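G., the chain you wanted modeled:
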Amino acid sequence: MTAYSQGHAASVLRSQTWRTVDNSAAYLAPHLRPDMRVLDVGCGPGTITADLATRVGSVLGVDSDPGVVEKARALGVDAVVGDVAALPDGPFDVVHAHQVLLHLTDPVAALREMMRVTAPGGLVATRDCDYAGIVLYPHDPRLDRWLEIYRGVARAHGTEPDAGRRALAWAHAAGAVDVTPSASIWCHATPDERAWWGGQWAERIVDSTIAERAVDGGFATREELADIASAWRAWAAHPDGWFSLPHGEVLIRVPG
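Predicted structure as tokens:
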């Protein structure tokens, strides 16, 4: 079910380790309590997981990649290797998944599995970005190509890069009835944010799973990817550079 198009190159992990509850799960934060048991699906290197652990009774992280599970454990996170198609049996008070559904070939089945291991009255919480909603300034046609390549590679592997707008539809298709939708945005516009975001994408587009799949699938040449990397560095250095990425979120209340 998992088809992660970016892999776990160093540039990808730098993006993931920036994530916290405040910048990536604020929609869930008001619902957390110290007595809760939480499952963090697709925990990656565990920064959100570790933050959740400071707010609830216990957290278990699960990820399909053994290497990133070890990184999560290095943060003191309780994490196991596993797949969203067969999650650890709960029941959990909250099952959380950040940037997971957009990398799955069957997100609806994944939501059903998350609901299965959630306690009656508990919450399934998902948040996924929507690449078609990106706002980027100043305009550079090479970055238009970056987005075209990224979305093409994702869809060629059966996944949906514009997942955010589908969050509510997928929840309904999974059988959820009590669903609270919301949206939020990542914005990278300060010099430090641009240097970090543009720098990691300049690396990622030439040295990651997405780069390999772009070339192997005929979406781009190595030369074009190198030119796109230059565009990212130019954007990062521009004093007016702006990048915003919307996310769709849902809170599914499992019947009690």
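Residues 44 and 79 are 10 Å apart (CA to CA).

Shout if anything looks off.
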